[in-house]
Amino acid sequence: MKAPQIDRLIRSYEGGGQAIDEQSRKLLDQLFEKLNQIVPCGDDNRHDLWLEAPRGTIEDYGDYEYELENELVSNMAEFEANWKEDYPHDVSFYQLTTAEYNGYRNVILNGSVVIRYEPGETGFYDLSKLLLWLIESVENTIFMLREGSYNDHIREALPYRYRTGVLPVKDYWDLFPEQRADHFQRISERECAEFDTLIHEQADTAPIMGLTVNRYLEICTLGYKENRVEGYETRTPLELYKRNADDRDGGLLTIDPDSPEAFDRWYDIPSQDKWEIQNPSHMWEVIQGSSRTRVHLFVSKKDGGYVLSLSTNEYCCPEYAARFYLALRHNGIPVTIFNAEGIADYLLGRGKVGFVPCFNWPTDYYYGGFSDKAVLEFRHFPEEHADVLSAKTEWYPIAEVSLKEAGETCTF
Q: Can you give the chain as a three-state secondary structure string?
């Protein structure tokens, strides 16, 4: 099979929720019998192999007449350009990952689960075309392992876009100055430098006494104005908070806004009991968003008053929290920010870029995935400047694959 055909099958079966037919089940048995000749690389008889498929011709890519009729392209030149953009190289690579436990089996191609088999299940989905290609490819891998050529071939042939590596951000910016310009368009170099200075200065840590809802909203407004959120010049603190914060705040806005005693009483209500007032699952979230973009301005009790602390994901859009921090410090309000050093490194380009395989979403790595904690940005390896960039990048080693010794078995 050619790469475009394989990719279409991956998209069709992504998620692995199909109950396969009897013919496919027998082919799945054959596939795992072949794989069991190879030393597993992890628990549950896990195997990781690199398979290859040719790009093929433009006819393998798609049906030009269909795309033209459905206005997906306007002419052959556009159709051909799409083909070359999607398949710029003669060969595509596929990382096959398999695992099995007590008869349960998973087959994953380039990060997508294509088969999720449960023992005893019966169905009607025919995955034989994909499984036959997998069996043939694994057989070829075993042949190469026997002759001792597989590992050297993969090390030499696997394109950088499928690999994992790290590079200092400043080296990346030297080759892609537009990326640096875009970074400092989101937050100025002056703001970044000031943030770096302030987090290293001794700040006032005295608690805020007599905190009220309205005082908290006024403090939030300082951050909203520093970030120039929509309506920051005309909206009231309450309006800005309602527009930007998450309303699952445990009833913060239901109490007397000017009473320190009311704030104290509400604060002391256990989180599980706040559910009786209102959903408290996103308390103190002053800029709502995903787990990578939201900003919290936490309130904690200390010495008869309250202290404030900011939190955000330091890998993605920390400029909003950094501006919040600057605004509060400018106005003499005691505040700390979690992982200040990591945020400063990201803002000033002192970290590293992590290149991730082209079939993975870079955003998946914001939750971890690199042991090197200096990696603060995640990208696919670009085609432009590839030779220079690859030479500067520290590439992670590709795992070695080997055959089992004669008579060797595996228990799992």
A: CCHHHHHHHHHHHCCCCCCECHHHHHHHHHHHHHHCCECCCECCCEEEEEEEEECCCHHHHCCHHHHHHCCCCCCHHHHHHHHHHHCCCCEEEEEEEEEEECCEEEEEECCEEEEEECCCCCCCECCHHHHHHHHHHHHHHHHHHHHCCHHHHHHHHCCHHHCCEEEEHHHHHHHCHHHHHHHHHHCCHHHHHHHHHHCCCCCCCCCECCCCHHHHHHHHHHHHHHCCCCCCCCCCHHHHHHHHCCCCCCCHHHCCCCCHHHHHHHHHCCHHHHCCCCCCCCCCEEECCCCCCCEEEEEEEECCEEEEEEECCCCCCCHHHHHHHHHHHHCCCCEEECCHHHHHHHHCCCCEEEEECCCCCHHHHHHCCCCCCCEEEEEECCCCCHHHHHHHCEECCCCCCCECCCCCCCCC
**Other Cβ atoms within 10 Å of 276 Cβ, number:** 10
CA-based nearest residue to 310, from 301, 323, 302: 323
Find the angle CA(326)-CA(328)-CA(332) to the nearest 5 degrees. 115
Torsion, Cα of 59, 64, 70, 75 (10° steps): 150
Q: Two tokens at 369?
A: 């995935």
What is the predicted pLDDT for the residue at 412?
39
| Cα 241 to Cα 225: distance, rounded to the nearest angstrom | 11
CA pair distance 368, 53, nearest whole angstrom? 31
Residue 360 has pLDDT above 60, yes or no: yes
> Mind listing the pLDDT tens digit for each residue in 60-104?
999 999 999 999 999 999 999 999 999 989 999 999 999 999 999
pLDDT in tens, 154-194: 999 999 999 999 999 999 999 999 999 999 999 999 999 99
| Proportion of the chain above pLDDT 70, given as a percent | 98
| Model pTM score | 0.82
Token match 């921090």: residue? 325
Of 180, 185, 187, residue with least CA distance to 324 = 187
C-alpha span between 99 and 47 (Å, rounded): 7
Per-residue pLDDT tens digits for 196-254: 999 999 777 899 999 999 999 999 999 999 999 999 999 999 999 999 999 999 999 99
- What does residue 21 show for φ and ψ, rounded to 5 degrees? -80, 180
